[in-house]
Design a protein that fits this description.
The chain is an alpha/beta fold. Helices cover 38% and strands 15% of the residues. The chain folds into two domains: 122 residues, Aspartate Aminotransferase, domain 1, CATH 3.90.1150; 258 residues, Aspartate Aminotransferase, domain 2. Strands 2-8-7-6-5-3-4 form a seven-stranded mixed β-sheet, sandwiched between helices.
Length: 397
């Protein structure tokens, strides 16, 4: 991987450490988007002309590439969505309608991003379901003993992140999935912070739904995927209605297409799908296993560097489990720290990171500053952050 593959970072102006929010796009992804836009920009699965046929071919090729990249075998279907949020909402609406009755339970964690929390909370309220939230311990870890006790015949779905967006906690998916499946409970995984940062094998994990966003794995915005067990999708009604997701419409009723097409109403983001495929190709060339090891080494260096700065507090004990390290610098507000770092060319995020219940549980209403790593980050980026933060810490309030 060459940092110069990423045009925005090529001049060295930025130490970009906000990859959990969005990643930069490498030149091959930008080239693929432009090439498709100028050579075969036409709608898919509709027109018989050559432009339409070629874009349809690329669109379906992208679907196949995404499925292979995430290790989704013949028992899984890839549905293109607007992103992980769109994928989770699709399942929340369609799965609950198909499989749940008043009094049933949906179980999630108190550490979840709002995208994997609010849909379940709100739909449970609307449909008379029981919304259960696994408490968070002072360590920032979920109370897994509570989780085990909460699983019951009334539990119809478990929803959790692969890697949390706040502190980079890697949840024990294999164990969670095993416990849930022993009781016949499907599991949805929000993979937004794992995709593109570590190898993911959906079929190997055995989860029932896996949700990703392309823009968090070096692809374009506005496109993502739901990788789901086909047998579940076949029983789920569509969330949206429109063109090309139907087989036949009469005045009396409508017969829908099989998955994935029944869940892709209207014109899909076909250029985004091409860019998504290009990002997958790029990651394949880079070698994700080696990239994950390098990111973990860099995360450890970041954690060690922050620990050495007087006044810096690291809310989660122990070395990082992923390329996300969050911290605070009392009495500075996290937002002020982020602004002062920005003035020194260091891009980070501050606040509660779409995880209000987590920070409420930890007694940290102002949140934290989050530094998150990507393919192109180097030890120099880490050292630049630490130097800049030392200057902030030296300011007398």
């Amino acid at each position: 991987m060459n940092r110069k593959d990423f045009p925005l970072l090529a001049d060295g102006k930025w130490a970009y450490l906000d990859n959990a929010a969005t990643t930069q796009r490498p030149q091959p992804v930008l080239d693929a988007l432009m090439e498709a836009a100028v050579t075969c920009n036409a709608n898919v699965h509709r027109s018989p002309h050559g432009l339409g046929r070629e874009m349809t071919r690329r669109f379906e090729e992208a679907r196949d590439k995404v499925g292979r990249f995430f290790g989704a075998g013949e028992n899984y279907t890839v549905v293109f969505t607007s992103g992980a949020t769109g994928a989770i909402n699709l399942v929340a609406h369609s799965y609950l309608e198909a499989f749940c009755q008043p009094g049933d339970r949906i179980l999630t964690l108190g550490s979840e991003h709002h995208s994997n929390f609010v849909p379940w909370q709100q739909l449970c309220k609307r449909q008379g379901l029981d919304f259960q939230v696994v408490p968070i311990l002072p360590s920032g870890q979920p109370d897994w003993a509570w989780f085990r006790q909460a699983l019951s015949p009334a539990t119809k779905l478990v929803a959790l992140a692969h890697v949390t967006n706040t502190f980079g906690v890697v949840n024990p998916l294999e164990e969670v999935i095993r416990l849930a499946h022993e009781r016949g409970i499907p599991v949805l995984v929000d993979g937004a912070q794992a995709a593109g940062h570590r190898p993911v094998g959906v079929e190997r994990l055995g989860c029932d739904f896996y949700c990703v966003s392309a823009h968090k794995m070096y692809g374009p915005t506005g496109i993502g995927a739901l990788l789901a067990r086909t047998q579940l999708l076949e029983r789920m009604p569509p969330l949206q209605f429109g063109g090309e997701m139907v087989e036949r419409v009469t005045v009396e009723d409508t017969r829908f297409q099989p998955p994935p097409y029944r869940f892709e109403a209207g014109t899909p983001h076909f250029l985004g799908a091409v860019g998504f495929a290009a990002a997958v190709d790029y990651l394949g060339q880079v070698g994700l296993e080696q990239a994950a090891r390098e990111e973990q080494t860099l995360a450890r260096a970041l954690w060690e560097g922050l620990r050495a700065i007087p006044g810096v507090e690291l809310p989660v004990a122990g070395p990082p489990q992923a390329g996300i390290v969050s911290f605070s610098l009392p009495p500075f507000h996290p937002y002020d720290v982020a602004v002062l770092l920005d003035q020194q060319g260091v891009a980070v995020r501050s606040g509660t990171h779409c995880a209000h219940p987590l920070f409420d549980a930890l007694g940290m209403p102002q949140g934290v500053v989050r530094a998150s790593l990507g393919l192109y980050n180097t030890l120099e980026d880490v050292e630049r952050l630490c130097r800049a933060l030392r200057r902030v810490a030296a300011i007398k309030l």
